[in-house]
Automatic annotation (TrEMBL), chain A:
Protein name as it appears in the record: Aminopeptidase
Membrane topology: Multi-pass membrane protein
Matches recorded under Gene3D superfamilies: MetI-like, Neutral Protease Domain 2
GO process terms (BP): transmembrane transport
Localization annotation: Cell membrane; Membrane
GO cellular component, one term: plasma membrane
TM helices/strands, residue ranges: 12-32, 83-106, 118-139, 151-170, 209-234, 270-292, 332-353
Automatic annotation (TrEMBL), chain B:
InterPro entries the record matches: MetI-like, MetI-like_sf
SUPFAM superfamilies from the UniProt entry: MetI-like
Main location: membrane
Protein name, UniProt field: ABC transporter permease
Listed transmembrane segments: 9-29, 77-102, 114-135, 155-173, 214-237, 257-280
One Gene Ontology cellular component annotation held by this UniProt entry: plasma membrane
Organism: Cytobacillus horneckiae
Length: 775, 287
């Protein structure tokens, strides 16, 4: 019994809790069940209504409930916790280092000047949170400043302001130590000041400094909490009027508490849950600090002479100076610590491996291609394609669906093997269905080998967009194989895959792919790309190009039959569009962009490639550059969600014309406006943008309509996000691209993102999107 | 005395600086950066002093209404002073009693455990939790524990006072308990024990007298803690105290007047506690 009482419980529990906290800080966002933009919509289930705010423990999907707007509280906490802990630790680190060094040096002065003492006293009179409050009050506006700026500002202000109190306490402690006999002895022996400070004073202080460090973390969190109660949230406050509400940008814990302060009267869980987590955070650190303090106290304290009632029960840990190294035994606390570390690492690895992105639509299959083709003098292609397909769904597959490159002439399939056995297959509606043999159905990976050949016209230029059997996407328990017959946009629903292509051509043919090449004509070569939505190949003979380097470092090549002035013009326009998007949306995804002129009706954008149609307008060219972002790097099922890439890129193009070329809004959107006028004249009436393409009445409904509607929405709501509507448009496009890059979107994802971006209800989109359709 | 004046001057400058901060920091809309204009400080200060010398305390915002400070400062000052004074007195009383004189009792053990648990909880969380509890009590029993109306009278005062007392009590109790433990290991205590003095005498004559300097030294810290919580408590519980001038305004006048009044309040509280301790010593220790 006595032995059990001697254990330093608060130390061990503190270490465990802090470890849990650090774990959640590192992996919190991965563990979060929902993304920060997902909201719970009102649902009818089993005769009851599920509507936000949802109380905790009512739904498995929202374990800790939601707030009044439907955001998942658990996800907010898991995302915000890292801000709280990290900011507190960084602030503490800065102020402790500064305070300790300054304090120790001042502590060794013979006499401390009056003004320092007076300043310290004055400083300790005004509560720190009031000082920080006045520093943050005029600027803590999230609509005007970036959260990063505000966090950095807070860290600097907070750490500088709290240095004096640390200096004061370190100064007092070190001047106390400075009076000791061993310092005098050392001075007599000729030790310099810095030796005394770092070899004699610092070792005496280090334990109490450690305790102080941890307590100061709690103190910083406390200040953050106090600030949050007066509506100053770290990282910025969003103020909404009618009704007056304050929101935290970072979802940092004390901010979550502060923004839920109004919930003290009802729906208290929105307030209590973040409060409990915040409490857990501070208690973990406090326990650790008090555990360490108990340990040091037990080790160093003298025993009292009268009964005081608070004698430490913890067994002191005495230093044994005569111990040999070989005598060191692993004791229980070492083992426990190692077990904790191992658990931390194991759990972390587990989380990394099992976590899946919550952003975007889930795709449940994955393919990588290894393709080799030879082209002979007659224009016949012999292709061997090895495809590795992973099943990431819970189902076991009976077959695998491919899109059949039906566009090519005289296709001849020579051999199809799956998992090294020849397989039965079926070609129907431009799809290729490969049956998986019975015994391999449970396998999670399939190797498919397809050997086929086709013929190419012997033109000087051949654009091969659809030339290899592309694996369809498995989603929601079925293969997504609808192929669309529209010329615009990607042909079919595909996902980001890795390609490794080897080619061999007769002499004199140039191969252009999405990857950067040095422009030399070679008969043999290989190209590897990572995470691309498709792998188009252009084969040309006797074509020359003009090229240009943009200031942002993208290499532009133009293959066209144009005069020098015209080429120069076109390249100039494309490069200024790239530079603009590079600046406003995000870095241009390709090192090299090939612009190829063809005599097709429409312009097509492929990864790293634009194939121009006849008579391209400025808007169309810029739009196709914008598609390098919104079509080539954000996947979607074109059958229903083609409007997202078309609409956003059309909007981006008009935005470019307005901002970079100073056109008026009517001029910049003239393409979209005239499309809408044309549709009106044709008497097409109204149609939503996210209808299946087979029902679509006019292409304008999926490009002009969304572009104009998005523009209208931002013009209406921009004040929530900034001062200048043009900046907000750029920010919105950049935000969307950043959120969904290399992921798949659909209408629901678009609505969720936009809804939380501009704080609009789902009903806001009702007049141009079917908000109930799909998913 | 010179030192005292020096300190007052520093505090005064600090207060003016804080009050002028909202006018000195602004956002640069063009570059989206933070802009400092320290050059405005002298102007703001001279404006404040000239206003003050004309006997004009200025106005402050209360909701949408603009009110004169001079009209409200009396009541608000008294309210804040009462809350602060009783809060700190309760804190010092409880911690001295339990920290020294009743420290060895079994009852104190429970008290100490409670204090240890509470002290791990940051003050602002305690305040929010206490409010939640008060509202729950009202919902369960119908007994109104708190009032959030500024004209609530005593109902508006006692709860804030209690909340103000919490943080100083936790701090002071911990400090005293620790010092008590340290002091009892000293040689003069051994001498006293060896002489056969009883525990009460030792506690009064030896321990308290040696702990008193620490109490006085940390009184400033305790009052500052209480002031910090006063801001939060008055803001959340909607008490018409001195902080009404400070929040909701960005002008130098109300903020500076609020902070200076705060300074007076802490000064009065500090002196009164010193006086109380002096009386205690006179009455109990030197018979």
């Amino acid at each position: 019994m006595n032995k059990l009482q001697q254990i330093n419980y608060s130390l061990y529990i503190g270490i465990l809790f802090v470890a849990i906290l650090l774990f959640l800080c590192l992996f919190g966002p991965m563990l979060a069940p929902h993304s920060m933009t997902t909201t719970l919509e009102v649902q009818y289930k089993d005769g009851g209504v599920i509507a936000p705010p949802l109380a905790p423990f009512e739904s498995w999907a929202y374990p800790l409930g939601t707030d009044q707007w439907g955001y998942d509280i658990l996800s907010m906490i898991l995302n915000g916790l890292r801000y709280t802990v990290l900011i507190a630790v960084v602030v503490t680190m800065i102020k402790m280092i500064l305070g300790t060094v300054i304090g120790m040096y001042i502590g060794t002065w013979k006499k401390v000047p009056h003004w320092i003492v007076a300043f310290e006293n004055a400083w300790s009179y005004v509560p720190l949170f009031i000082i920080v409050y006045f520093f943050l009050l005029p600027i803590n506006n999230a609509t005007l400043l970036e959260p990063g700026t505000l966090i950095t500002y807070f860290i600097i202000i907070m750490s500088l302001l709290s240095v004096p109190s640390i200096v004061s306490s370190v100064r007092k402690k070190s001047s106390e130590v400075y009076k000791s006999d061993f310092i005098k002895a050392s001075t007599t022996l000729g030790a310099k000041k810095s030796r005394i400070i770092w070899h004699h004073i610092f070792p005496q202080l280090k334990e109490s400094l450690l305790v102080m460090f941890i307590l100061e973390i709690v103190y910083v969190i406390t200040i953050m909490g106090q600030l949050a109660l007066v509506n100053i949230f770290i990282g910025g406050t969003i103020v909404r009027f009618d009704p007056l509400i304050y929101l935290s940008v970072t979802k940092e814990l004390s901010g979550l508490v502060g923004q839920a302060r109004g919930n003290i009267y009802g729906n208290t869980h929105i307030l209590i849950i973040p409060l409990i987590v915040l409490l857990f955070t501070t208690i973990s650190f406090s326990l650790l600090a008090s555990g360490l303090k108990n340990k040091f106290q037990a080790d160093y304290q003298r025993t009292p002479w009268i009964k005081t009632g608070n004698e430490p029960k913890i067994a002191p840990n005495r230093k044994n100076y005569n111990k040999k190294k070989s005598d060191k035994k692993l004791n229980a606390s070492h083992l426990t610590f190692m077990a904790l570390l191992a658990a931390f690492i194991l759990a972390g690895t587990f989380v990394i491996y099992t976590s899946e992105t919550k952003v975007g639509v889930k795709q449940e299959s994955k393919a990588s291609y290894d393709i080799a083709f030879q082209m002979d003098e007659d224009g016949r292609f012999n292709v061997q394609s090895d495809i590795l397909i992973k099943n990431e769904s819970e189902d076991s597959w009976n077959d695998i669906m491919f899109f059949y490159p039906a566009e090519q002439r005289n296709i001849n399939i020579e051999e199809i093997k799956i998992d090294k056995q020849s397989a039965a297959y079926e070609i129907k509606n431009e799809t290729l269905k490969i049956i998986i043999p019975e015994k391999n159905k449970k396998a999670r990976k399939h190797k498919v080998k397809i050997q086929y050949s086709f013929e190419m016209t012997k033109d000087s230029m051949n654009v091969l967009a659809d030339w290899y059997p592309a694996a369809a996407v498995y989603q929601n328990g079925k293969w997504s194989v609808e192929k669309k017959d529209y010329a615009q946009g990607p042909m079919y629903h595909s996902r980001f895959s890795d390609f490794d292509v080897q080619y061999q051509t007769p002499e004199g043919y140039r191969i252009v792919t999405s990857k950067k090449d040095d422009g030399a004509i070679e008969e043999k070569g290989s190209v590897k790309t990572k995470s691309e939505i498709a792998f188009p190949v252009v084969i040309m003979k006797d074509e020359v190009f003009v090229d240009k380097e943009t200031t942002s470092g993208t290499h532009l090549r133009l293959f066209a039959d144009l005069s020098a002035a015209e080429s120069e013009d076109l390249l100039q326009q494309a490069s200024s569009a790239i530079e603009f998007f590079n600046e406003e949306i995000g870095s241009f995804p390709y090192e090299q962009l090939d612009i190829i002129q063809s005599d097709a009706d429409t312009t097509q954008t492929y990864p790293g490639m634009i194939v121009l149609g006849r008579d391209v307008s400025a808007h169309e060219l810029v739009q196709s550059v914008a598609k390098s972002y919104f079509q080539s790097n954000i996947a979607s099922n074109p059958h229903e969600h083609l409007w997202i890439s078309e609409g956003l890129s059309s909007f981006a193009a008009s935005h470019y014309l307005m901002m970079a070329e100073n056109q008026s809004e009517t001029d910049a959107f003239s393409v979209s406006l005239s499309q809408v006028d044309r549709m009106k004249e044709a008497g097409l009436g109204r149609q939503k943008s996210n209808v299946p393409l087979s029902e679509l009445k006019d292409f304008g409904f999926i490009s002009a309509q969304p572009a104009l509607q998005i523009n209208m929405m931002i013009n209406e709501r921009y004040e929530l996000k900034g001062v200048d509507p043009m900046d907000v448009k750029s920010q919105y496009l950049a935000g969307f691209y950043k959120q969904y890059r290399s992921k798949e979107v659909d209408t629901t994802e678009f609505i969720q993102f936009t809804k939380s971006y501009f704080s609009v209800p789902s009903g806001y989109f009702n007049n141009w999107l079917d908000t109930k359709a799909s998913r | 005395m010179a030192r005292f004046v020096q300190q007052m001057v520093i505090i005064f400058i600090l207060i003016l600086f804080l009050a002028a901060l909202p006018t000195m920091i602004s956002i640069n809309m063009e570059e989206k950066s933070i802009q400092w204009s320290f050059s405005q400080f002298p102007a703001a200060v001279s404006d404040f002093i000239s206003q003050l010398s004309q006997g004009n305390l200025g106005t402050y915002q209360l909701g949408l209404q603009e009110r004169s400070i001079a009209q409200d400062i009396g009541d608000n000052f008294i309210t804040s002073l009462i809350i602060m004074f009783f809060g700190v007195v309760i804190a010092v009383f409880i911690s001295v009693i339990f920290g020294i004189f009743l420290s060895r009792l079994r009852m104190t053990k429970i008290f100490r455990m409670m204090m240890n648990v509470l002290s791990t909880i940051p003050d602002f969380i305690l305040i929010v939790l206490a409010m939640l509890l008060a509202i729950k009590i009202y919902k369960w029993t119908g007994i109104r524990v708190i009032s959030l109306r500024p004209d609530g009278g005593a109902l508006n005062i006692w709860f804030p006072t209690l909340l103000i007392a919490v943080a100083p009590t936790l701090y002071m109790f911990k400090l005293i308990a620790e010092k008590y433990y340290q002091t009892s290991g000293e040689d003069y205590i051994r001498t006293a024990v060896a002489k056969g003095m009883n525990v009460h005498t030792i506690n009064f004559q030896h321990v308290f007298k040696n702990i008193e300097p620490f109490i006085i030294a940390d009184l400033v810290k305790v009052i500052s803690l209480a002031i910090g919580n006063l801001f939060i408590v008055e803001y959340i519980l909607n008490v018409s105290g001195i902080t009404k001038f400070i929040f909701q305004s960005t002008e130098i006048q109300p903020i500076a007047i609020g902070l200076i009044s705060m300074l007076f309040i802490s000064f009065i509280v500090y002196l009164s506690i010193r006086l109380l301790i002096y009386l205690f010593k006179r009455g109990f220790i030197y018979e």
